[in-house]
Structures are given as structure tokens and as C-alpha cells.
Specification:
Elements (H helix, E strand, L loop, with lengths): L14 E6 L3 H18 L5 E6 L3 H4 L5 H4 L7 H9 L4 E5 L11 E6 L7 E4 L14 E4 L2 H10 L4 E4 L4 H9 L5 E5 H6 L8 E2 L14 E6 L3 H7 L5 H17 L7 E8 L2 E9 L6 E9 L3 H15 L8
Parallel strand pairs: 1-2, 1-3, 6-7, 6-8
Antiparallel strand pairs: 3-10, 4-10, 5-8, 5-9, 11-12, 12-13
Helix pairs in contact: 9-10
């Protein structure tokens, strides 16, 4: 696995078709990519068009993604459009990308990462510890539910699918007592003020890729790579290479509660990682640091440490 972001020089394409899901957050992220491309290239910018593609993950709202096929449900139609040449690049929330991409496609890189933390949202308690016993917390994330149950095994977890606005509306109607959403998504939608509290990333370790916008494209498509290069962030690329290396060794999927957060401090790269049972009854965590040039090795090393410490079958989905 390579750290994305470097390639040979190439002439810019005349047009770039930007593929995206149709949710308000996905559209906001695609528009952000479009604006950064336009600003980076100025008068030489390609014609930039956003192409909305409906994904299986958008259509399935009545069950958890783990029961329907996993993270690929948010990406496979976009992958197919790339493979057919219907679009030139695809914009994703990095945490939605599956562990492995189809042959012929690659992660070109990432925009500068937003705040990685989870936002606690509730009118009944300003912290998960303060919720009354038996309260209902809505989430579609196995990681979030497992970490909540580790902290508060008395809470009831309710499946909460749909876009950000739909989830907030269910909370406002009193269908649930609280929910947890990525603060990055709330910020991109202008809804950051809905957060009651930001959860400490050291205690409530984010999902791999959380807060980052990823761009995928066809492998070795030099003109697209040249167009994207000025807007990609190398520090985010290093951190995400580390996190995704962790995920690859753990073979993480939507069936596996895994948290992983890597960040640069000077020339050093730091990684926190955790694996949990879905009911939060048992977990194993680790922290590791090393040179940023060893990003992939650090992620793999942390994953192997967790696998050694956990009992056999711990990650079986």
C-alpha cells in the first residue's frame, strides 16, 4: 500500500467529472473539492462538473450496513462509474472507504483533515455519563455503540440510519435521547452548533479516516493526478496511510468495532488504536509512535500487537 499524493507531471485535462453520493454532506464535500480545484488552477482550471450517483448504502435504511454488505455499499456504484469512465474522480468521506479498493482504482489523496472528534448531541445530558439509566442512543456505528456500551452498559442502542439532518430530526422529535455524529460533517453542513459536547479523541477513539475527505480515481490516470496534486494534503496522507494499514491487518469491516487515529507532531507520527467487542464488554487499545516515513509499518505493528493481545476469534464478524 502506497502513501497517495505523488506522481509524474502531466498536462491538465479539459474536463473533470466529480462523482459523489447525493446526500447533503456528500454534495457539500464534492462542492468543496470543486472549489479547491478551481482556486488551485485559476484560469487554467478544467471544466468542473459534479455528477450525482445513487449508492446502495443510500437506499438501505432499515438495517445496519454490516447486515447488508459493509462499507462498500457507499462506494461500489462510484467505483463502477470510475471503471466505465463515466466520472474522472470520486469524492468520499474517508471513513466510508472499504479496506481494499477494486483493482485499477486508487486513493489519489486527501484534502486537509478536519477535526477528527465525535460530537455528543443530546438535550437530556451534556455527557454520556450523565444520561439516565436505560436511555436510548441512536447510532448506525458499531464502533460508537461499542464504546458507549463500554462506558455505559445500561444504555439502549437504537439503529439510526439516514443523512445527518434526518438523524437530528429524529432526536428533536424525541425518538431517541442522544446520538453521536462526526463534528467534521456537522461543520461542513454548518451545523456545528448542534453539538452538545466534543468527545476526547484519546478516550473515544475516532474511526479510521474520520474527518478526512478522500478522492479516488483510476490508477495511473496521470492528467487527473496532475489536476489533483495542488489540493492534496501530505500530512493527512501520511496519517491515513498509517490508519488504513492498521485496518488492513485487522481486516476491519462494518462488522468490526475498530478505532484508529494517527497524527503528526513534527517529524513523529503517533497512532492510537482500539478493538472492541460489539457489546463493549471487552476491549484492547494501544499507542505507538515513530518516524512519519514508517507510517505503514507503524499501522501494521499496532494491528499485530492488538491481535496478539486479543483472544482467538475476537474480531470474527
Amino acid at each position: 500500500m502506497a502513501i497517495p499524493g505523488s506522481s509524474v507531471e502531466s498536462a491538465l485535462p479539459a474536463q473533470l467529472r466529480i462523482g459523489t453520493r447525493g446526500s447533503p454532506l456528500a454534495l457539500a464535500q464534492a462542492e468543496h473539492v470543486k472549489q479547491r480545484l478551481a482556486a488551485a488552477h485559476g484560469a487554467q482550471a478544467p471544466e468542473l462538473d459534479i455528477v450525482v450517483i445513487k449508492t446502495s448504502g443510500d437506499l438501505i435504511q432499515d438495517r445496519a450496513l454490516a447486515e447488508a454488505g459493509g462499507k462498500g455499499l457507499f462506494t461500489k456504484e462510484l467505483d463502477s462509474a470510475l471503471e466505465r469512465g463515466d466520472i474522472d474522480l470520486a469524492v468520499h468521506s474517508a471513513k466510508d472507504l472499504p479496506t481494499f479498493l477494486p483493482q485499477g482504482l486508487e486513493i489519489s489523496g486527501y484534502l486537509p483533515r478536519e477535526d477528527v472528534r465525535d460530537a455528543w448531541i443530546s438535550e437530556k445530558a451534556d455527557d454520556p455519563r450523565a444520561l439516565p439509566p436505560g436511555s436510548v442512543v441512536g447510532t448506525a456505528s458499531l464502533r460508537r455503540s461499542a464504546m458507549l456500551l463500554r462506558l455505559r452498559p445500561d444504555l439502549a442502542i437504537s439503529l439510526l440510519r439516514g443523512n445527518v439532518e434526518t438523524r437530528l430530526a429524529k432526536l428533536a422529535r424525541g425518538e431517541i435521547d442522544a446520538t453521536i455524529l462526526a463534528i467534521a460533517g456537522l461543520k461542513r453542513l454548518g451545523l456545528a452548533d448542534r453539538a452538545t459536547r466534543l468527545l476526547d479523541a484519546a478516550d473515544f477513539i475516532p474511526a479510521v479516516g474520520q474527518g478526512a475527505i478522500a478522492i479516488t480515481a483510476r490508477r495511473d490516470d496521470a492528467p487527473v493526478t496532475a489536476a489533483l496534486r495542488p489540493i492534496l494534503d501530505s500530512a493527512t496522507g501520511v496519517a491515513l496511510a498509517c490508519e488504513r494499514a492498521l485496518l488492513q491487518v485487522l481486516d476491519g469491516s462494518c462488522r468490526t468495532p475498530i478505532g484508529g487515529h494517527a497524527w503528526l507532531a513534527g517529524d513523529a507520527l503517533h497512532l492510537r488504536a482500539i478493538i472492541l467487542r460489539p457489546d463493549g464488554s471487552e476491549s484492547f487499545a494501544t499507542e505507538i509512535s515513530g518516524p512519519h516515513a514508517d507510517a505503514i509499518n507503524l499501522g501494521e505493528k499496532a494491528a499485530r500487537e492488538l491481535l496478539v493481545r486479543a483472544p482467538p476469534g475476537f474480531l470474527a464478524g
